[in-house]
Design goal:
mainly alpha, 5 helices
Length: 131
């Protein structure tokens, strides 16, 4: 890795950490969706290049993010919506595992589409003042 690449990577990590520290809870969830979608896209690229190790790494990271979203659901206040999202996140995580096992880019596309739809709905929710 060149010194320039190392510096760029370090800058990116600091920038991400700063974004997280300054983000509202609403924005943090948006960032999780963005991260999961990015990892799925990277996994698909690795899959198409037959890079098995990178594919597994990116899918694993996407699953961890989806599980984080799932763990952040509020069962008490979320009611039926929370239960539905819990089931959907579980489905997405299982499909990601299956996509990795079968090396199936269509399954990754399905997971990306589902997460994208949830993200679009989340983006439409106003964070409100001070949130």
């Amino acid at each position: 890795m060149s010194p320039y690449s190392a510096a760029a990577k370090q800058y990116q990590q600091v920038n991400v950490q700063s974004s997280v520290v300054d983000a509202s809870p609403h924005r943090l969830v948006q960032m999780l969706f963005e991260g999961a979608l990015q990892r799925i896209a990277e996994a698909k690229g690795a899959m198409l290049r037959s890079d098995i190790a990178l594919r597994g790494e990116k899918i694993s990271k996407a699953i961890n993010i989806v599980q984080g979203l799932q763990g952040s659901l509020n069962d008490t206040e979320g009611g039926d919506l929370s239960a539905s999202l819990d089931q959907l996140y579980d489905y997405i995580a299982r499909r990601l595992i299956e996509a990795n096992r079968q090396s199936d880019p269509a399954m990754l596309d399905e997971c990306g589409r589902l997460l994208g739809e949830i993200k679009t709905a989340w983006d439409g929710i106003s964070a409100g003042p001070g949130v």
